[in-house]
Amino acid sequence: MVFWQRASALLFTCAPLINAATLSVRDASASSDGLLVDTASGKVQGFYNNTAHTVRAFLGVPFAAAPSGSLRFLPPQKRQRSSGVIQATAWPPSCPGLYSNDTNIYSLLPYFPFAGFSEDCLSINVWTPSLSRLKKGQLLPVNIYIYGGSFDQGGTSIPTYEATDLVANHDVVSVAINYRVTIFGNPNSPYLASKGGSVNVGLLDQRFAIEWLQKNVAAFGGDPKRMIAFGQSAGSISRVYPHS
């Protein structure tokens, strides 16, 4: 009990610093070099990190329609192209997942999602070098991170998955994808199966995101022929299930 009381006190003491760190990630540079990218979902506005001026970030870029209402429990569907500019400058919400007030790794900083939860959650984060770092026509290898969490929690707004430092030091495009978890991603419903539906829509979200990237990652400087997907825990298992 004493340990957790001290841990809680430390958390509250550090809260202003944590908040400042979050804001520094979201603050945009005055430069507009390469920050407006055209994708199948619409034009996307990104930003430069204040601590890494050679890295462009695009947070919460939608790759599919919101899986809510009549689309809930169904495989991901194509999203209508936005007529306006999509502001990809803030951490996106995570898909609804298991969350408890009990102390565990996913309820402590830096592992819990900053941006809350929403069913409109099928999005990706992209970190890519500035145009000044890219040679004309150059396309970089792409790594696609799939988070873990036992298929019942997780999200791309968890700060420990932030890839600015990686991209600042290596010529690579780094992507993190959101996918449905818990009952929303793995309904395991005999009724859905009897109607020809899928009981693994969370895995289909991952595939849909990768297919979207194949068609759009070049706009971010990535090479669609050199993409690799990897993950942690449930994320790594996800790369095996579709082929087993």
From TrEMBL:
- State its Enzyme Commission number(s): 3.1.1.7
Question: Which Gene3D superfamilies does the record associate with it?
Answer: alpha/beta hydrolase (3.40.50.1820)
- What organism does the record attribute this protein to? Thanatephorus cucumeris (strain AG1-IB / isolate 7/3/14) (Lettuce bottom rot fungus)
At the top level, the lineage of the source is Eukaryota
Which GO molecular function terms does the record list? acetylcholinesterase activity
Going by the UniProt record, its keywords in alphabetical order are: Hydrolase, Signal
Stated name of the protein: Acetylcholinesterase Short=AChE
* One Pfam family from the record: COesterase
Q: Which family does it belong to?
A: Belongs to the type-B carboxylesterase/lipase family.
State whether keyword Hydrolase applies. Answer: yes
Which positions make up the signal peptide?
A: 1-20
Which gene is transcribed and translated to give this protein? ACHE
User: Which InterPro entries does the entry mention?
Assistant: AB_hydrolase_fold, AChE-related_enzymes, CarbesteraseB
**Domain Carboxylesterase type B: residue ranges:** 36-238
